[in-house]
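Quick start: what a row looks like.
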Amino acid sequence: MAGRGVAPGRRRDSKSGVSNMDVGFIGLGRMGRVMAARLVAAGHRVRVWNRSPEAARAIEGAEPVASPAEAFAGDAAITMLADDVALRAVTIEGGLLDSEQRPGVHVGMSTISVALARELAAVHGRAGVPYVSAPVFGRPDAAEKGALNIIAAGDDASIARVQPLFDAMGSKTWRFGTEPEKANAVKLAGNFMLVSAIEAMGEAAAFAEGHGIAGADVLEMLTSTLFASPVYKNYGAMIMEGRYEPPGFTMRLGLKDVRLALAAGEAVNVPMPFASVLRDNLLDAIAHGDGDKDFAGLATVSARRSGR
C-alpha cells in the first residue's frame, strides 16, 4: 500500500468515507464465487480468475482476468482453491511469487493441510509477500449473507490491512496468532467435529429405526432440545428429509478434510481413532456412488448397514 491516503487502484466510498480495495480472487467454486460477489457488493474492485473462465464471467461487477498472475496483485489477493494440489499448482509451481507485480497481502482461504500452510508461510517470507491464512466456517448460503466465520492467523498488521475484506465476507473474524498454519489446524479441528456430528446423527437415526421409531422424529426432538445448535439443526434437517442434492459441501471434500486432520494429528503424535472411522465411512459412501452428494449424506452409510 503506497503512501498515505488512498492507495493506487482504490476507490473511496463517498457515503462512508471508507477506502475500498483492489483485490484479486483466485478460485471460483461453490464458495469462492459467492465470496467474490460479496466483495464486489461491498464496493471493492475485484479481479477474478478461475480455471473455467465461465465462472469468472458469471460474477456481475467483477473483472475477469486471463491468468492467475493478473489476479495476484493489488492491495490483496485471495486464493480459494479446492485442495493442496490445486493451491500448490497455482501459487508455488505457477511461479506467482516470482512475478514482478505482487499483492500487498496474500490471503489463503482454502482448507488445506497444516504442512502446506507452514510451507506457504516460509515461501512467502522469502519472497517478501505477507501471508495470512484465513479458512472459513460456513456453507454457500452463509457466504451469500456475509455470515461466514473467518479463522485468521498471520502478522497483525497484515490481518488489519485485509479486515475490510473479512468484514464483507463474514460476521466475525477469529484470530489465532501470528503463525498462519494455526488457522488451518483450527479449521481441520472444526471440520472433524462437524463430520463427527453427522455420523452420530446417522447412527442414532438408524438405531431408532431398528426399534421401530421414526429416525426423523427422534432427530427432530434431539435437535430441538439437547442438540439445538446450528450444525445439528441444519444437518439434522437434511438427514430427516434425505436432502443431499444439490450439495453445499461434498463427501469427497469431507474425506479430503478428514485425511488432512489425520495427517496433522500424526505429525504431532495425537491419535484420532474416530477420525479413522469417519474416513472409512466416507470411503464407503463414495464407493456406493455418493461422493458428489452433500456430506450430510454420510448418514446413509449407517442406514444402509442396518438394512434400511
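That is the whole record. Residues 1-9, 12-18 have pLDDT under 50 and may be disordered. The first helix runs from residue 30 to 41.
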